[in-house]
Amino acid sequence: MRAPNKEQVNVADDPQRLGCVTASRVHDLMSKTKTGYSKTREDYMRELVGQRLTGMREKQFTSAAMQRGIDLEPEAKEVYEARTGLFVEDPPFMLHPKILMFGASPDGLIELDGDLMGLLEIKCMGQKNHVDFMLAKRIPIRYQRQMIAQCSCTGARIVDFAAFNPDFPQGCDFVVQRFEPSEEQIIELEEEVILFLEELDKMETQLRNLKNGK
After folding, report:
1. In what helix (H) or strand (E) does residue 189 lie, and over which residues does it extend?
2. What are the CA-CA distances from residue 173 to residues 79, 119, 141, 149 (Å)?
């Protein structure tokens, strides 16, 4: 049985994440309605401003589905290694080399042919969503954006998206789909992140000036 990597278990508590845009939340800042950006963008910005002003993250609610994913991730990595022959390395939180306050924590790093690095993203879905994914054979946009952001931050250009539900029979329990974002997708996402961070910085400055009586 593969033991959870200590760094990976605590990656959510990495102090480098404080006030940063993270790949798993990029969908929140990019989501739009017919009239413009959705409310999730504003909510996420205020959440990050709060982290920057207080120097701490509020305790996050962990649903049963989220806990299931955490518990099953080591087993999913074992299955991936056994069925693909690729070794999975547990990475730390990885900051973008050029865009400050932007980072990602992929579920795994994989070494492909030669020196080519790939990523592994695992989703342990409930029965309905697992069936939906098998039938549609399309990765939901939220997860696509997460993986594009991961590629932007790490320099990887290939991500294996793995849907794992051990309750299903073998052959249906673990489904891997390779995702390769285009340069255009990466550039578009980076532009959205930069714009968001600029607005976030302005909001932070405004609130710090209030604190200082300006």
Report:
1. helix 183-211
2. 10, 20, 22, 27
Domain count, the chain: 1
CA atoms of 204 and 202, how far apart (whole Å): 5
Give bridge partners of residue 121 from the DSSP assignment: 161
Whether 1 maps to a domain, the answer reads: no
Half-sphere exposure of 149 (CA within 13 A, CB side): 32
In a domain, 66, yes or no: yes
CATH number of the domain to which 49 belongs: 3.90.320.10
pLDDT value of residue 6:
42
Q: What is the pLDDT of residues 122-169, one digit of tens each?
A: 999 999 999 999 999 899 999 999 999 999 999 999 999 999 999 999
For residue 76, the Cα-to-chain-centroid distance in whole angstroms is 17
Contacts of 157 (CB under 8 A, 6+ apart): 118, 151, 180, 181
Residue 12 lies in a domain: yes
Q: What is the pTM of this model?
A: 0.91
What are 40-61's pLDDT values in tens digits? 999 999 999 999 999 999 887 8
3-state secondary structure 148-174: HHHHHHHCCCCEEEEEECCCCCCCCCE
Work out whether the CA dihedral 125, 128, 134, 135 comes out positive or negative. negative
Question: DSSP character for 42?
Answer: H
Per-position DSSP letters for 55-113, written without gaps between them:
TSPPPPP--HHHHHHHHHHHHHHHHHHHHH---EE----EE-SSSTTEEE--SEEEE-S
What secondary structure letter does DSSP report for 16?
A: G
